[in-house]
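Take a record.
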Amino acid sequence: MTKTAPSRRLQPGDLICGTCGEGNPPTRRFCSRCGASLVTATKAKESWWRRFLHWLRRLLPGHGPKVVKIGSASATADSKDGKDGRDAAQLVKHGPGLKPALRRIFRTARLVLAMVILFGGILYGVYPPFRNAVNGKFESAKSHVSTDIGIGQSPIHPVSVTANESMPGFPPLNASDENLSTYWLAPWSSSDESTLTFTFARHITLKQMILHIGASNAYIQNGRPSELRLVFSNGQSDTITPQDTSQGQTFSVGHADLISGMQIVVEGVYPGSSGSNVAIDEIELFGYNL
């Protein structure tokens, strides 16, 4: 005989006939549809989500055990013993009381928090974009906390410095060698902006820059940057405007959280007397290694 769907909605404990598939109350011994014995029938089980809902309902306010107030009948019975219902009156509470209400609120809040943590953990484990966003927020918060509690910034050194173009004998590494007698020199035009690219060994948060512009031994002869745009690997950017001086200048850098590299684009130049070029003597970086 071919099994078919039960003709009635199954309840937990119902007996499912192994011959025709009919659901039978647990008190029956033979199937109500085909008459087969139910000795070997399987019992219907409640679905996991229904069990979860029952468990959740028990924890919500208003679904706990009911409290029945002692009525006047009990008070009358006590009065026969000479107590005038005083003991019964002490057991009657007028209203739910503050403590039970707070207890229910705390229990509900704890349940909601547990569910948020559970589903957040599942999402963190199975969805990489969410995991990366959480990790980024955590590292950014850690960096800001370090700043707020006064942990000192440390020098940050790139592992490589490259440029889109350089003049012979004046490589881009000269701009980050901590030697003020060497400098990076490159041709410059408004249509072909000179660019330095810094790459770091790991993610850093950049907070400060000390900049020495121009050529150390030919300051007036060569151009000096008048505007620099900093483009960070996190998609953010910042702009600084140096003064035309050979002295070191300190700038605060924003939006450079958790970066692995940056580009320094020369967008404006104080012109030199010997041609259209630009020189940067030294760039010192300070922040947090993460």
